[in-house]
Amino acid sequence: MPSQGVYCVAKLDKRITQKFAESIDDVEAIARQFELEEANVYVALASFDGYSRKAEDAQFLRSFFVDLDVGAGKAALGRGYDSKGDALVSLHAFIPRVDLPPPVIIDSGTGIHAYWLFDRDIPAAEWKPYAEKFKALCIDNDLFIDPVVTADMARIMRCPDTFNYKTTPPSKCEVISDDLPVYSFDEFKEFLGIVEETPAEILKNLPKGLDDDTKALMKLDNQETRFEKIAIRSLEGDGCGQIRWAIENSAVLPEPMWTAVLSIAQHCVDRDESIHKLSEDYPKYSFSDTERKATLRQGKPYSCITFDNENPGICDTCEHRGKITNPLALGRIIKIAQAPKEDAVREQTNTEGIPSNVIPDHPQALYPYFRGESGGIYYQPPPKLDKKGNKKEQDPQLIYPHELFPIRRMFSKADGEILMMRLLLPKDAPRDFMVTTRSLNASDEFKKAIGFMGVTGNADKLVHIMGYIMKWGHYLQTQAEAELMQMQMGWTEVIGDERLGREYVIGNHLIRSNGTIVQTPASPMVKSVSKHFEPKGTFERWQESAQQLNRPSMEMHAFGTLIGLGSPLMPLTSTPGAIVSYTGKSGNGKTGALYANLSIWCNPVGISVFDATNNGLNQRYVTLKNAAFGVDEAHTRKIEELSKMVHAISQGKAKIRMQGSINAEREHELLASSIAMMTCNMPLLDMIMSNNSMATGEMARMIEFLVMKPRLLIDEPDFGPKVFDAFKYNYGHAGRKLIPAYFSTGEAALTDIVKEWIERFKKDFGNDAIYRFYENIIGAAMTGGVIGNEFGIIDYDLNRIYEKVCSEMINIRDKVVTLGETDHSALVGDFINKYYTGFLGINDGKVTMEPRTSLVGRIDLATGLVTISTTEFKKYLTDKNVSSREFEQNMKERNILIEVKKSRLDAGWKQALSILDKNMNVNTYVFATEIPDTFFSGDGETD
User: Fold this and answer.
1) What is the band of 413 on the pLDDT scale with cuts at 50, 70, 90?
2) Coil, helix or strand for 647?
3) Which pLDDT does position 182 carry in this prediction?
4) How far is Cα 865 from Cα 855, in angstroms, rounded to an integer?
5) Which end of the chain has fewer beta carbons closer than 10 Å to its terminal beta carbon, N or C?
6) Dihedral sign, Cα of residue 606, residue 608, residue 612, residue 614
7) Contact partners, residue 30, CB within 8 Å, separation at least 6
């Protein structure tokens, strides 16, 4: 027999009766009792998970077995043997034929049973496929077995040393083998051929015993058993009939039943009181005798089967029969963690930065949810009415075995009320995640959120977990004001005419106007980048490297640092944002300048965007809001994305996002205002111009400097690695000193400094509104330098840096103006060159060139006129992002566009298809413009 599980013994007289046992000793006792009743006795070969002899409840087995039927009728049909002797002969011949070891053989009285015993308990799901293979082995090798028996996990077989009452007189069922050999099941598996198990079978094969981890998962340490509860339930009719009978007959209780009841009370937490209450009505009651008797029962409590054997009949009508193994199950209660004082809860749940090992006590307000003394979340169901209408208390339900509780209540203008939850799992680091109260009203959204974090359960338990979190939310709403969740870095919301906020968010911290730094709740959008804003290294090492950029020939690199310092001041200018691009060869220190910029605030490597989607770039820019935004290797991005990004940064907006629940824009649009810095190996403006003939907007919003290799990097080859690498490991300190400096200076004074630099720039560079982005970059960056110098963050020669930067801007000004104005006349020549093969060339009525592709225009060499299909040319203008109305107006003013009229493009072309003769009267532009020399060559002339 298996060594674990519930066993089944059956008797068959006029009907079949089954009894269950929890030990091999009980199996033998029940079998002996059935034998005394002169019944056929059977024992199930499997053990079961509970009081049910069903195949699906089979837990373990420990043998293969066959039943060789004997009888003339069965022999005639080829399903058995004439005699037990013939069956034995066949069995002994079969064993060596298939190379099996000898089994244990039993004479069942009317047939032969054979067992191959194994060395371990075999999980039923593991046993089943091999039993099927063993059955096939027997059948395929002409052993006449009962095919229904061999692979049946719920099979009962005759018990040896009993009688078979099917014969007269009864026949003895006995072991006829001399030995009881035991074999390795694993060797049998190898002999039969390994069966590949499915994942479901593997799970089912896992041992069902409760190890320490499983017990902890079930929170069994939260349970205790009280005999008082067992007694009350029993007397009320919903407990144990045997206990009730013992209590009601305590004065005349037989010694065996007294011992049985004491074995239950002995294992209860109220043992000391209960064993004596059970015994004190007995006339010969003795305190010491009761203690001695109870102490003797420190082993296993008596089982329901033992109670039934001692006092038959009462268990027959028990509603718990087959559901519990002993009465202790009726007295279990959950130990509830003690509720604290309300102030203690409030202090724990609203303290910033709660340590991960602090678990807030559960207030009474969470009822019907509570925490077990050793952890776990429980739900107390309401009382249940029985058939008589009486209220019956139900047992608490464990809805989640681990620690799950809120550590913050916050409010987000985008997502509403939010609870920051903390999950503590036995083997993992603490997990903090956010649950919106909106999701608590949308079960699917809630299940996805907590399921992602590892909180799982069936549908009923998930409903209660949702209710539990909702209860926490209601409670915390009565305790303190919600913290305002920060949606972006940078200045917080402005008040009145302010342009800079009164607080500044940097990572997970808030810098207040008085200079103090406190933690602040961050939205998921901010949280994803906030880790990069934790300071690393030292400010002194950062300052040492930043100061090296003040050396002659490093002015453009120093300007990168000034851009980073001045980025938060862009709200004081007339444009929300602007872009500075550093282009040039690798090795010129462009990325080093970018790292100097970003390291003021954060980890420059982690925050500089290289490989990201367009949406990701927009998200990052808006999240950073006023902190410097950097894009390394920008030339690797698509031209369309670059153009969109330039406009988004200059406007301070990402693309409009829609609300998930309704077809409307989000109520709170997120804006940004900063200076973005990019690096590239090829000019970004050239890339944009190649795809857009009207790139004036992009060029006005972006300053692109060609950064040459500084003399210092040539003279000192180790300068770059020594200085620029330091920014990778020392960062985040300067920004935390700079913002308090801005607060100390005051918005009005900062605005005046910005205006002074802008006025200086206008005098040096020129006062044209198209360059407002240029002047604002100068205003913000140089003001950042002024404050940085004044408060000891840097010590830069600002005039020298300004003169260098301004001279570079002046050098590119004329080029910018030229490129910024679209040359409409050049577009005509570009179109002709691009669609050369679609033109018909005519000179004095003769064809000089025939079109080899679709006809798009004609050129009359004698008159110097070019006629082009308006349909095709407008498509071309659209691709170039040029307005057709603006094009027509400009070309008419310059007397290049003569007229717009219907024309026959194929006129004079004899070889034109007849179908074209009827359909080539199309809308056209007629231009007086320079004609390419190709059309005068006569290369395409025909006869």
Assistant:
1) confident
2) helix
3) 92
4) 16
5) C
6) positive
7) 9, 19, 21, 305
CA distance 800 to 796: 9
Strand, coil or helix: 432? strand
Structure tokens at 702: 């972006």
**Number of separate helices (H) and strands (E) present in the chain:** 36, 36
In the 8-state DSSP scheme, what is residue 366? G
Q: How confident is the model at residue 633 (pLDDT cuts 50, 70, 90)?
A: confident
CA-CA-CA-CA torsion sign (822, 824, 826, 831): positive
Cβ–Cβ < 8 Å for 578, 777:
yes
Q: Which residues pair with 926 in a beta bridge?
A: 867, 899
Total number of residues shown for the chain:
943
Distance (Å, rounded) from C-alpha 831 to C-alpha 871? Answer: 13
- Report which secondary-structure segment, H or E, holds 247: helix 241-248
pLDDT tens digits for range 836-887: 899 999 988 888 888 999 999 999 988 889 999 999 999 988 887 777 887 8
Q: What is the DSSP string of 269-319?
A: TTHHHHHHHHHTTSTT--HHHHHHHHHTT-SSPPPHHHHHHHSTTGGGG-T
Map tokens 């144990």 to a residue. 240
Residue 758 tokens read as 């802008």
Sign of CA dihedral 521, 526, 531, 534: negative
Q: pLDDT per residue over 76-87, tens digit each?
A: 777 789 999 999
DSSP string, 99-129: TPPP-EEEE-SSSEEEEEEEEEEEEHHHHHH
- d(Cα 643, Cα 695) in Å, to the nearest integer? 9
Reduced to 3 states (helix: H, G, I; strand: E, B; else coil), residue 736 is helix
CA atoms within 13 A on the CB side of 932: 21
Strand order in the sheet with 377-379: 369-371, 377-379, 397-400
Residue (of 842, 845, 866, 862) closest to 928 by Cα position: 866
Q: Annotate 413-436 with b (16+ C-beta within 10 A) or e (fewer).
A: ebbebbbbbbbbeeeeeeeebbbb
Q: Is the pLDDT of residue 299 over 70?
A: no
